[in-house]
Write a structure and sequence with these properties.
heterodimer; A: about 425 residues; mainly alpha; about 75% helix; B: about 180 residues; alpha/beta; five-stranded parallel beta sheet; 5 strands
Chain lengths: ~425, ~180
């Protein structure tokens, strides 16, 4: 196959994979298009079979790690960890809306960092809404805080975001080193979100709440909290001991799953659903399709575009480029495209790219321009949702958060 | 004015008690009272949008979708707030729960009312244009009836008015004496 043709075919396969994932015709899993696209890339000779297998081998441990983290978050939810966080927040806020927002920031940042942004979006956000409702406070600032922190607060640990998991191995950093380097950028991004949201929602953070409904009964989820804490410590020790972090995550998930299964609190089928096999297959297939795009010629182009060097300017340029790319196509393909070139440039460049792909999606609140346009198209006939406010909040938070987090990254070499 | 007075109380979390307390002594005994709670539709949209941003994760099963869970909780919370408001008002009132663009819904509901009772929101640390939030500002500007704007907590004293000549801007010329 000629080089130009291979490049075109690879790009078309990627576009089809992403378009299907955004549109999700008939609610079919995203893997339904991604797997045939990956196979076609090999069959059409765009990507040699050995390169595809190499990519799958590289992604394997990351996908296993992802599965374990998804399971861990689900089990923490079943143990009542999120409900307990809601109860604590309701009690500690004393009816004050700004205090509740502060607590949502603490809990949202911690949940995102420890259990990934998926946990914040799917499991924590409804609990935060319920907490605001229980205090009879306006829910909007608190729900928006969750959606923003799911992105901005996902900088800290390799487990906080799938983009981090993918970049973690490519960066060659240890788990602890990753966390140390990202601690300051994480704090900087969260601080910017706090300063902006606090002002943006000033007129919704008024009045005084009252504790109207009794919290749903439930004890302190000591087991879940202990297992989660031990798992996080285990991540740090794993690289020292030469153990794969995915093993630690799997042990943590098993420590919660086995007692829950024994006591009949969860059925095996439910655990199977929590692992989200179609999602894991999608990630693997997307990895192969993006590898085809990179190998067919886009890789060297990204390498030329990506500024090298550790100066604040080049780090900012990397973060900005990554943020733009993430907003165009979503941050998952963006990070897969950027990684080979970023990893070649060094860990600083990888982390700057992560700042861009993780914080950037807050600009278009649905993750990418493609998704935003599709959702608008769907709703044209319906009452159009008031998205202007989200976009305004995105414009106010993303550039300063990118700037602050990238400068924090540069400040701590 | 013919017939009974029609009064709309727009009730929002955090400030609703002030509205009810201000309206209670003013209402004629035969007034028709409507209690309105308008939930911003963008809260569910935010939760749904955040989920859409997670590429490849599919859709959560029934009862697990965050926006769906928020929708159910939201209706429940609105009904509870209006029930509490009716009890505090101490007289029967029609309860209206809406969801969408709050400022437009409130103005729509005020159509045909004689009086709209609303609470101030906004930044009350500096009283001025920003001490009325955007939504309340729109309602005050477009309400098709009289509006009673209520302080929901403490009424500010006259000392909240800034001095006519802030320090550092020179003293005003002394008034001319003849």
């Amino acid at each position: 196959v000629s080089r130009a043709l291979a490049e075109t075919v690879a790009l078309l396969l990627l576009a089809a994979t992403l378009a299907f994932a955004v549109v999700r015709p008939r609610g079919l899993p995203e893997a339904v298009a991604a797997v045939p696209a990956a196979l076609l890339a090999v069959v059409l000779g765009v990507l040699p079979a050995h390169a595809a297998l190499q990519e799958l081998r590289d992604l394997g441990p990351t996908i296993g790690f992802l599965a374990a983290v998804l399971l861990l978050a689900e089990l923490c939810d079943r143990e009542g960890l999120f409900e307990a966080a809601g109860r604590r927040m309701a009690a500690a806020a004393h009816g004050r809306p700004v205090a509740l927002l502060g607590l949502v920031f603490v809990v949202g940042s911690a949940v995102t960092a420890a259990l990934s942004l998926d946990a914040t979006v799917v499991l924590l956000t409804p609990v935060v809404f319920a907490t605001a409702a229980r205090l009879r406070l306006r829910p909007k600032p608190h729900v928006y805080a969750c959606t923003h922190l799911a992105n901005s607060a996902s900088l800290l640990l390799p487990v906080s975001n799938l983009t981090n998991l993918l970049a973690f191995r490519a960066s060659g950093l240890s788990f602890a080193r990753f966390a140390v380097l990202m601690a300051l950028p994480w704090l900087a991004a969260v601080a910017v979100e706090w300063l902006v949201l606090r002002r943006f929602f000033a007129s919704d953070l008024v009045g005084r709440g009252e504790l109207v409904a009794d919290a749903p009964a439930g004890g302190a989820p000591r087991l879940a909290a202990a297992v989660l804490a031990l798992t996080l410590v285990g991540f740090g020790l794993a690289s020292v001991a030469g153990v794969d972090e995915a093993v630690v995550a799997a042990l943590g998930a098993a420590a919660l799953a086995l007692p829950a299964l024994r006591r009949g609190r969860v059925r095996p089928a439910e655990l199977g659903r929590a692992v989200a096999v179609p999602f894991l297959v999608f990630v693997a297939a997307l990895g192969v399709v993006v590898r085809a795009v990179s190998d067919a010629g886009l890789g060297p182009l990204v390498g030329r575009l990506l500024p090298a060097g550790g100066s604040p300017w080049s780090l900012l340029a990397v973060a900005a480029l990554a943020a733009v790319l993430a907003n165009l196509v979503n941050n998952l393909p963006a990070v897969l495209l950027l990684l080979p070139a970023a990893a070649a440039a060094g860990p600083g460049t990888v982390l700057a790219a992560l700042v861009g792909v993780n914080v950037g999606p807050n600009l278009t609140y649905v993750g990418s321009l493609a998704t935003l346009l599709w959702r608008r198209l769907l709703r044209e006939r319906d009452a159009e949702p008031p998205v202007a406010e989200f976009l305004r909040l995105g414009v106010l938070t993303v550039p300063p958060a990118l700037l602050a987090a990238t400068l924090a990254l540069w400040a701590l070499p | 004015m013919t017939g009974a007075m029609r009064v709309l109380l727009w009730l929002v979390e955090g400030t609703w008690q002030g509205c009810v307390d201000a309206a209670r002594p003013l209402l004629p005994s035969d007034a028709e009272v409507v209690l309105l709670h308008a939930a911003p539709g963008e809260v569910e949209e935010a939760a749904d949008g955040a989920l859409a941003g997670l590429l490849g994760r599919g859709r959560p099963g029934p009862g697990r979708h965050p926006a769906g869970r928020i929708g159910v909780l939201s209706e429940q919370a609105a009904a509870e707030l209006l029930a509490a408001a009716e009890a505090r008002l101490g007289r029967p009132a029609r309860q209206e729960v809406r969801r969408g663009r709050v400022e437009r819904l409130v103005v729509e509901e005020a159509q045909g009312a004689d009086l709209l009772v609303a609470a101030r929101d906004g930044d009350r640390s500096r009283l001025g244009p920003a001490s009325l939030g955007q939504v309340t500002r729109f309602v005050v500007d477009h309400a098709p009836c009289a509006v009673l704007l209520v302080w929901s907590d403490q009424v500010p004293g006259l000392e909240s008015i800034p001095p006519r000549h802030p320090p550092g801007h020179g003293q005003p010329p002394p008034p001319a004496r003849h």
